[in-house]
Design brief:
The chain has 249 residues and is of the alpha+beta class. It contains 9 helices and 10 strands.
C-alpha cells in the first residue's frame, strides 16, 4: 500500500503549504455532493457521506459549505450533476495507475487526462488493464508513537485487518464498509485518528530507489492529481522516505 499512502501524505503536506488548499476544498466538496446524491443526506445511513464529511472537516472545509454541498447532492439546492469516470494506465517506469474523476463533461475530461498522461511520460490503457492489481480498502492513519502490541490488540478488537508503521504514525487497513466502525472503536480506545478514507491499495508495490526515476513518477502523479476533475490517483510504487522528503522540499 506504500504507493498510495506515501503519495497521499506528500499531497496533504504540499496542500497545507500552498495555494493547492483551495483546489483541495473544491475536490472534497464535489465528493461530498456526489456521496449525498448516491446515498442520501443522512450520515447515519450513508457511510460514504459520513466518511467524506469527516475528510472535509479534517481539511478545515467550513461546515456550512459542506452542508450546502449535501443539499445540492440531495436536490434541495440546484447544482451540477457529476459523473464518475476512472482511467487506467501506466506512469513512467511501468508503474500501474488508476485515476478517479468526477466530471460534468466526459469528453473534455477524457481528452485532458489522456493529454496529461502522454505529456508526463505515461500511457493510457484499456479498462481492466491494471485494476486487477488493486483492492478497495478502508485506510486510517493513526498518530503515533503507540506500542505496536497494544495497537495490534486494539485494531483486531475494532475489526481492522492489519497495520503498518509509516514514520512515527501507523496505517490501518479495513474492509471498505468497516472504516467508520473501526474509526469509532479506535477513537474510543483513545487513539488519535488523523484521517480515514476509502481507497485502492496495490496488492504488490514496485520499489523505486533511483532518485531520477522516482522524481519522474512523482511529477507524473502531481500533474495528474492537479487536474480539477481528478479526485484520486492510485499507483503501485514504493519510494524511500528520503527521496520523498527531497521532492517535497
Amino acid at each position: 500500500m506504500s504507493g498510495h499512502s506515501k503519495w497521499a501524505t506528500t499531497k496533504h503536506r504540499k496542500g497545507a503549504k500552498d495555494s493547492a488548499r483551495a483546489k483541495v476544498f473544491a475536490k472534497l466538496i464535489r465528493q461530498v455532493e456526489v456521496a449525498a446524491r448516491e446515498g442520501g443526506g443522512d450520515q447515519s445511513t450513508n457511510a460514504s457521506l459520513r466518511t467524506m464529511f469527516q475528510k472535509a472537516r479534517e481539511a478545515s472545509v467550513p461546515i456550512d459549505t459542506i452542508e450546502r454541498a449535501i443539499k445540492r447532492g440531495t436536490g434541495e439546492l440546484e447544482g451540477v450533476r457529476y459523473e464518475a469516470i476512472s482511467y487506467e494506465g501506466y506512469a513512467p517506469g511501468g508503474i500501474a495507475v488508476i485515476v478517479e474523476t468526477l466530471t460534468d463533461n466526459r469528453n473534455r475530461t477524457s481528452a485532458e487526462i489522456k493529454h496529461l498522461f502522454g505529456k508526463n511520460g505515461g500511457t493510457i490503457a484499456e479498462p481492466g488493464a491494471v485494476s486487477w492489481q488493486f483492492d478497495r480498502k478502508g485506510v486510517l492513519e493513526i498518530q503515533g508513537p503507540i506500542d505496536e502490541d497494544q495497537l495490534l490488540e486494539w485494531v483486531m478488537e475494532a475489526g481492522g485487518e492489519n497495520f503498518e508503521a509509516q514514520g512515527q504514525n501507523f496505517i490501518v487497513t479495513t474492509e471498505p464498509h468497516e472504516v467508520g466502525k473501526v474509526r469509532d472503536a479506535l477513537e474510543g480506545f483513545g487513539v488519535k485518528v488523523l484521517s480515514a478514507e476509502l481507497t485502492l491499495v496495490a496488492q504488490n508495490s514496485i520499489e523505486v530507489t533511483d532518485e531520477a526515476d522516482a522524481k519522474k513518477i512523482l511529477r507524473f502523479m502531481e500533474a495528474i492529481d492537479d487536474h480539477d476533475d481528478v479526485q484520486n490517483v492510485f499507483a503501485n510504487f514504493d519510494v524511500p522516505e528520503e527521496i520523498l522528503a527531497a521532492y517535497e522540499e
